[in-house]
Amino acid sequence: MVLFSGRRKPRLAPALDDAELGRFVKSLLEVPRAGMIGMADLHMARMADLLKQAGTDWDRRTYRLSVLAEATAASGVPSAWAAREPDNPDALLLSAWALLTQGRWSGGLNDAVSLVKSCYRAAELSPEDPAPWVIVLAVARLERYERGSLLAVWREVQARDPWNREAHLQLLGYLSPEEGGSRVDVLDFVDFVLARAPADAPTAALELTAAALNYQSVVARGGVEALMARDLWKHPQVAKALDQAAATWPQPGFLHHAAAQADLNLLAYALCTAERRSEAAAVFTTLEGAVTDWPWNVDGRDPVDVFSHEQSRTV
Q1: Any residues with CB less than 8 A from the CB of 300 and at least 6 apart, and which?
Q2: Model confidence pLDDT, tens digit, residues 267-307
Q3: Residue 113, φ and ψ in degrees, nearest 5
Q4: Phi, psi of 290 (to 5 degrees)
Q5: Domains of the chain (ranges plus CATH)?
Q6: Angle, to 10 degrees, between the axis of helix 19-29 and the axis of helix 58-72?
Q7: In this predicted structure, what is the pLDDT of residue 171?
């Protein structure tokens, strides 16, 4: 019986296994938007604490900024915080990332120049922090900066946090065929990173991310090619990546970066779409029901429903 299975019910987990961040995000979801403005001081103080706690753990700090920006982008609280404390790099960066999030939702930025200036100011105030440059990199991707300008920003991130997960995902997106790059660009970038990054770095899932995006793109195009899309997981290099990930990632402590559970969601998805469900079972067990939007939300489907369905097929 499900009641006694010990398996946690799948649920969206935007904060993944970051318990303190999760409690705060949950509290935001429980407050109506109008009420959020009324509690702005409390929220600013709590966000300041969360970012201060991350310290110089740039991976954790970048992840917390991204989640907080997503959770508060529609509220106006980040911009109010930055206006109140214009020399606080945390306030400047959260406001910039929230504006970036709004731009992603709407398909473009209203004032990219001001957003980037805020990041430059934050970089002056906290020169060792990669986050300002990660945000500028995301702006460069969204605004389709020419490649030389984007790579200059990339080098700033690399100088501060060479395995920054978010920065690598932004560059991967920029290089993709869907955004003006090419499949060759993507593969060259993945190979470049694989040759240098430790196996347990925050960039561990870059190769599988590229493979999953390619798979989803092929399926979305339809036709005969889509019918054969599962064969993409049998490509020797991709199959090898799946083998290695399935053997190591679910092991306790192997992946230790802030978004490790997001990468485990990707691994579970990849194993299911590759029809390697017996291996996926161990990954689902490790996740304990923590669901991310991507990659399960393909075609606009509810990610929790898709996750639950695929999990049930591994039993």
Answers
A1: none
A2: 999 999 999 999 999 999 999 999 999 999 988 899 999 99
A3: -65, -45
A4: -80, 115
A5: 65-161 (1.25.40), 205-314 (no CATH)
A6: 10
A7: 98
